[in-house]
Amino acid sequence: MYILVSENFIAGLTTAPQPEGRLYGEYLPGEDVARFWEETTRPAQALGWWRQGHEPEWPEGAGEPEEGQFLALILGQEITFYRREQGRWQPQPHEVMNLYTDFGSRQQGLFDLKLLAGKRVAIVGLGSGGSLVAAQLAKAGVGHFELFDFDRLGSGNISRHLCGLRDLGRLKVAAVKDALENTNPFVEVNTYPYDITRHLSEVEIILAGCDLVVGAADSEVAKGEINRLAVRLRKPAVYGAVYDMGYGGDIFRYQPPAGACYACFKESTRDIFQDAPRAEVLDYGKIAPQPALEMDVTIIGSLVARVVLAELLAGDPLSQLERLPANWVIWGNRPWEGWIFDEPLQSRFVEISRDPTCPVCQHDLFIQEKLGLAPDEAARQAAALLASLENKRPPEPAS
Ligand SMILES: [Zn+2]
Asked: Interface pTM (ipTM) of the complex?
């Protein structure tokens, strides 16, 4: 018999106003383990009773104790467990854990855990890439998530997704939320099971409260909207992509206010992808609905998470994570003749410059160039045009 109990669970019983009560926990008979902790996301079972006292006495009114039931005695700040075996109360050893102090213990000294626990990250798209990034960030200690995805988990997703067979048919946002809560006892997760392109004003309000946005959607339309919002709100954004067949992938980082945005990046890398692996079917930005090994996708997802962490910790003097030397990292899993990598597992850093005529981050210059008007004047003329159209609207039919 192995009993695991959390400090907070014990504190809950030692400070309870009543002297006894039902004992809730989880018992796994096949492994002969009982677990008692307040943060469990599984439905707790009534495993017996707890009471204040010295002697293992079953509470009056609890009926006859059954074989296998538990009794927890509370004396001061201490807890002692007993189990009913062959008609007698047998004392059982237990181990105390503290989820909250133990959680960050393996990352002590790498960065300021408290700083990371206060950060809020939005992730748009929870396919194999986005779900993995979410999990890595939660494990590192990021405290708050805003998750967007309208899709459900299908059987084709399982081989490369964070979630498994037990989550088939579930909304990806709900399944990933459960997975994050299963790894980080502090985490707070909000979920939005919709297409962001249809809820832009709501998404803008949510992103305004975030420290960073991860663009892991598999549609370029969605990525374009994320970019527009990130630029307008001046939020850092990180985009990951896996190339066809998992030959490699890349990570692009937008740093406001002066960095090249995702639209600049798309424009200036258009030619580079002419010779990319199977360029004719390469759908830039797709986190691999095409065949790709999970391990090839995982590397890119881990790199995205790493770039995100380095950005979140940019103001932390303790951080051991270096920011990337450039805003675009290309990673090659396997070589591809005639393309940039001739050996496996190589990387390149490239600094993408701002496109001086970018319609997103150089909006004013773009207007000036395309219309030959100052932005204020263009806006005034547009408003006047709209107003004149408004006046010409046909009258509402009388009801
Ligand atoms: Zn731009």
From this structure: 0.99
